Amino acid sequence: MPVKVVTYGEWQLVGLLLAVCCLGFSVSARAQTGDETFRAIVAELGDANFREKEAIAARLIETAHPGVRNVVTALMDGRVFIRDQDGQAFVVESTAEDLSEFTLLDPASAAEVGSSPPGQLSRVITNNQLRRFLRMAVARFSLSSADASVRRDAVREILRSLDAGNVELLRARAEEEEDADVAYEIETALALVALDDEDTRVRSEAVGRLVGRLNPEVRNRLATLLESDEEGRFVEPDPGVRAAAAEVLQRIDLWRSLFSLIETAFFGLSLGSVLVLIAIGLAITFGVMGVINMAHGELMMLGAYTTYVVQLWMPEFIGLSLLVAVPAAFVVAGSAGIVIERTIIRFLYGRPLETLLATFGVSLVLQQLVRSVFSANNRAVTTPAWMSGALEFNPAFSLTYNRLYIILFSLVAFSLVLAVLKYTRLGLDIRAVSQNRAMARAMGVRSARIDAMTFGLGAGIAGVAGVALSQLTNVGPNLGQSYIIDSFMVVVFGGVGNLWGTLIGGMSLGIANKLLEPFAGAVLAKIFVLVLLILFIQFRPRGLFPQTGRAAESL
Amino acid sequence: MTRLSRSLLAVVADRGSLSFLTLLATVALMVPILNLAVPESSPLHLSSYVVALIGKYLCYALLAVAVDLIWGFGGILSLGHAAFFALGGYASGMYLMRQIGTRGVYAHPVLPDFMVFLNWSELPWFWYGFDRFWFALIMVVLVPGALALVFGWLAFRSRVTGVYFAIMTQALTYALMLAFFRNDMGFGGNNGFTDFKELLGFDLQSDATRSALVVATAVSLAASYWACQAIVGSRAGRVIRAIRDAESRTRFLGYPVHSYKLWVFVFSAVLAGVAGALYVPQVGIINPSEFEPINSIEVVIWVAVGGRGTLYGAAAGAVLVNYAKTYFTAALPDVWLYALGAIFIGVTLFLPRGLVGVIPVMSRRK
């Protein structure tokens, strides 16, 4: 019998184990079915038309699966792909053009599940209407986010297309919203809704609440209130409300145009800072030494490539890479400059046109060198996270961080160069040699060494400018060529041999360019500025701040 | 009159000029013979490809002579001469476009293809008259000449010299390049003009026309060379050289420096325009990249390589550098920019008088 008992017990144990197993299996199976259904719905997107896709996306969102947000965002970015061989859906990490293999992520878990060449995948394409639908869906999600700025953006998104469902959401949110900014935006949205109210008093009160709200939607909405159809019937029947709306609209327009003027000025300043930055180095080599350095652009290019190499070396610290790249670029371009000065330019002093030809040769050699080492294709330089984004003051006015940093960076570089020239021994020697070489030598200044150091300084600053340019434009062998004329223009406009002239010249050219752009377009604005410059030089052939005295005759 | 004829004769008396003109005459004679009369099987036969290359080099040589006239003798460094070249080219290109007529892709009787493509309904006013050869011929001279007159008048009057002048001419050609890249300028945007059919009724693809164009270019080059030598040898030429060597002193001596500079600059721009006009039918395309600032700098290099201040040296430099370019870009494309860069550096450092400057040194050694 004991045997039997044991047997019975064994069976019991087995049964229990089986039961547990089954239970466990069924639990995991349920989770799996959730993921499976989710994946299946995503895969349905593969051969649906846009209207069906909208319905599929709606069902996807209804599942409330944790992967929804990820998939919907990817769908808007065009990163959802169907694998051709088995019809499975994947989210692709990045669709950068130079990738030979796309990294595939599971839509449900966002885990990496393999990779595939782009040729074997078909993208789930979206149209504007579908994207609008998806954006709204994301906005609804985001409305309950813990981050106030995410909530604010969500309200702004909803503002663009208000409907009954959204309004309910906003009303509900308004009651529990604690952040003042978000509450303000919700109030704007609700006031816009109230403009449709049947009660004239509610409408006129809503118009009153819209005073000073600078969102483009508010402006457009108020403008439509004042429109009339063919039979002369106004959209807004009440003349009092219309008058109030007109007044509010006028004030909004005034503010908006004021802010857009400030923004243009800011764009101009940031363009001006770039111009100043690329011209400082030239102001030293050209202005102080009288060397027409046509390789200046290529020295900037060296700086930009240094940034690229630094980022290759420290891929984990992209945020820090720019800070490392600045001194590195200074050293690289500066040493290149010293080599150029020692081997070529020192034989050509006093013959500016010859330096132009020789340094142009140098620029060709440097371009080809970069092509041989890095290939002729553009290299991708990453923008650190702290450079992207914008400092937002109100819906009509925001300043992007990269432009802000460029302005700061160029002012710092300018002050440093000015300080070096003014307060250091090297600066004293540089000024002495440029003013009167013979006398400086008589006083014991080693002029040959100073020449090399001066050219090195100018070249180094060009390299530093290259670090900034790597954030603004493509890093390729032609980077230098596209900036060389601009930098010469700035130096000539400002007045050769005068750093302050370079600062003021660069800033005013930048602002002039941006002020002309809205009327003429980017290319015509640039042509106008060039023509104005050519005319300007007729009246002040030595620039804004001409050199006076004996040095003026030398060039 | 006698002075003029004496200076004309002086050109032939000079040995360098004599050999240059003889060489040109030989080219003008031999190209049609070797290309048309000699059968293709013969090793002496010149292929159409080579004929086109020779024509192109001769145009460049003419451009180089124009630059040498103002740089080598007047000390005016223009880094925008490719702009005048391109303007002349556009003027002749406009004539060639009008000649296409209904043979274009859209077969429009009046409008060139790109205008039909842009949905333009009528010809812009500045295209009027370009269906006539004589009008185009006048424009080839007039447009670069007028631009040079205005630009030069402004610049020389306010004594913009040396480096400043060089940089301003760069700005000029850069501004023109940006302008011509625009589609609504009415010059075909970044595609420019191409697909030409005929010139004065002659098929541009035929060997006979191509040879005739080479002869025309050689004759123009010889005539321009002669004219430049005549200017340089005249009294005015001596004033121009005096301006190069001591501008202020010449002014103090009472010479109207700015008008001397202005007229020689305008003449040089016209020569550049003629070179461009001859260039376009031979290469079969003109687009805004001809305005690129680097092109103008390259022309200066040709002159520096050949030897500035000799005219025939400039022409030789243009042919040599461009032959090297053709050879290297085909055989060793990676090396070409290194080579060109090295030529720039080497010539400025070691050959301040160019290749021509080497010849007397070598003959003296004998």
Describe the structure.
The complex is a heterodimer of chains A (555) and B (366). With 555 residues, chain A is mainly alpha-helical. Chain A is built from 20 helices and seven strands. Chain A folds into three domains: 2-128, no CATH class; 143-237, no CATH class; 263-553, ABC transporter involved in vitamin B12 uptake, BtuC, CATH 1.10.3470. In chain A, the strands form two sheets. Chain A has a five-stranded antiparallel beta sheet. A two-stranded antiparallel ribbon of chain A has the order 6-7. In chain A, helix 2 packs parallel to helix 4 (128-142) and helix 11 (296-313) runs antiparallel to helix 12 (318-343). The N and C termini of chain A lie far apart (119 Å). With 366 residues, chain B is mostly helical. Chain B has one domain. Chain B has helices at residues 2-13, 15-37, 48-73, 81-100, 113-117, 133-157, 162-181, 207-233, 235-245, 247-252, 257-283, 293-306, 312-331, 333-350, 358-365; strands spanning 193-194, 198-199, 202-203, 285-286. Chain B has a two-stranded antiparallel ribbon with strand order 1-4. In chain B, strands 2-3 form a two-stranded antiparallel ribbon. Chain B is globular. The A-B interface holds A 292, 294, 344, 347-348, 352-354, 356-358, 360-365, 367-368, 371-372, 481, 485, 488-489, 492, 523-524, 526-527, 530-531, 533-535, 537-539, 541-542, 555 and B 77, 151, 154-155, 157-160, 162-164, 166-168, 170-172, 174-175, 178-179, 181-182, 293-294, 297, 300-301, 304, 334, 337-338, 340-349, 352.
Which terms summarize this structure?
heterodimer, A: 555 residues, mainly alpha, ABC transporter involved in vitamin B12 uptake, BtuC, 3 domains, five-stranded antiparallel beta sheet, two-stranded antiparallel ribbon, 20 helices, globular, B: 366 residues, two-stranded antiparallel sheet, 72% helix
What's the topology here?
The complex is a heterodimer of chains A (555) and B (366).
Chain A: H1 2-44, H2 50-62, H3 68-76, E1 80-83, E2 89-92, E3 102-105, E4 112-116, E5 121-123, H4 128-142, H5 148-160, H6 164-176, H7 180-194, H8 200-209, H9 216-225, H10 239-288, H11 296-313, H12 318-343, H13 352-374, E6 390-394, E7 397-400, H14 401-423, H15 425-435, H16 437-442, H17 447-470, H18 481-494, H19 499-520, H20 522-539
Antiparallel strand pairs in A: 1-2, 1-5, 2-3, 3-4, 6-7
Helix pairs in contact in A: 1-2, 2-4, 3-4, 4-5, 5-7, 6-7, 7-8, 8-10, 9-10, 10-14, 10-17, 10-18, 10-19, 11-12, 11-13, 11-17, 12-17, 14-15, 14-17, 15-17, 18-19, 19-20
Chain B: H1 2-13, H2 15-37, H3 48-73, H4 81-100, H5 113-117, H6 133-157, H7 162-181, E1 193-194, E2 198-199, E3 202-203, H8 207-233, H9 235-245, H10 247-252, H11 257-283, E4 285-286, H12 293-306, H13 312-331, H14 333-350, H15 358-365
Helix pairs in contact in B: 1-8, 2-8, 3-8, 3-11, 3-12, 3-13, 4-6, 4-11, 6-11, 8-9, 8-11, 9-11, 12-13, 13-14
